[in-house]
Amino acid sequence: MAALKSDSLSLRGLALQFARPSSPDNYKRNAKWRYPQAAVIPDFHLPMRSLEVKNRTSTEDIKALRLITAIKTPYLPDGRFDVEAYDDLVNMQIVNGVEGIIVGGTTGEGQLMSWDEHIMLIGHTVNCFGGSIKVIGNTGSNSTREAIHATEQGFAVGMHGALHINPYYGKTSKEGMVSHFESVLSMGPSIIYNVPSRTGQDIPPRVIHTIARSAYLAGVKECVGNDRVKQYTDNGIVVWSGNDDECHDSRWSYGATGVISVASNLVPRLMRELMFGGKNPSLNAKLMPLIEWLFEEPNPIGLNTALAQLGVVRPVFRLPYVPLPLAKRVEFVNLVKEIGRENFVGEKDVQVLNDDDFILIGRY
Prior knowledge:
Elements: H1 2-17, H2 24-30, H3 59-63, E1 67-70, H4 83-95, E2 100-103, H5 115-129, E3 134-138, H6 144-156, E4 161-165, H7 174-185, E5 190-194, H8 196-199, H9 205-211, E6 217-222, H10 226-233, E7 239-241, H11 247-253, E8 258-261, H12 268-276, H13 281-294, H14 301-309, E9 316-318, H15 326-339, E10 359-361
Parallel strand pairs: 1-2, 1-8, 2-3, 3-4, 4-5, 5-6, 6-7, 7-8, 9-10
Helix pairs in contact: 6-7, 7-9, 13-15
């Protein structure tokens, strides 16, 4: 209350400072132009934080993760979540040694979810699998207000960490980025995601170095390239490669802790070997045709097509995503045969799906 009274007095003093003299003539003679000053109103919101420790995870625990999968979200024919198929996907990640999952990221199509769906899926994942794998919710947004609200809710339902993007499309200044990230970092362990090809704006190193003072910054998912990875790791900042095609070299030659992977949805055991088993250029080369195939069109189009043809999810797409064309679907079947069906998730034979096998949903 004393703080409120003090702020009220200071604002009143500011108003009096700029009050006009009673006499218009006197005002014209004595007035001196001053730049308007923004009154900084303190933020009186307290963090919506629980002290229960059931799912509490330290920032250091998140920093130690080497293989994190950006998990796919499967759908029922009417466009709702296929929770049964989702659970199977997560279980396959756990069995094959994946240490963490990103829920509702770009790969998981968080951009096509309502916030109700998003938080529900985070809560479901924690409830079912939180004791076996680290659950990192993508609660970032280009709206700071939405990012704060979603991150509060995500930690309230038990997620272990948050993934945060810089404000995309509308963009902001470097100072605005710092303010945006500082508004959410105090809530719990967080990974900053830099992917200029999607946001339209790079997060420059000086922004990361500024917010690295926060005890809750776990690290950076970096998609700019390995030179940037090394710049951070040389300065003690944890980095995960955001590019499957660069992650082997990022891990073993540039100091990255690991990868946040799309390909591990399909071949989790091989991606674990790539991150844990030391330099392995032959395995990296073996996986490269699959990785290139996955990203010929914007992610998650390739992944959604692949998982449907492996029979582990229904061939349902939320628009605007549509399956890869027939020639690419045939190419995937050949890739599976070359790498070995036993290395991929699921137990059904891989098959080429026809165009009319897919369901495209615009309303859900």
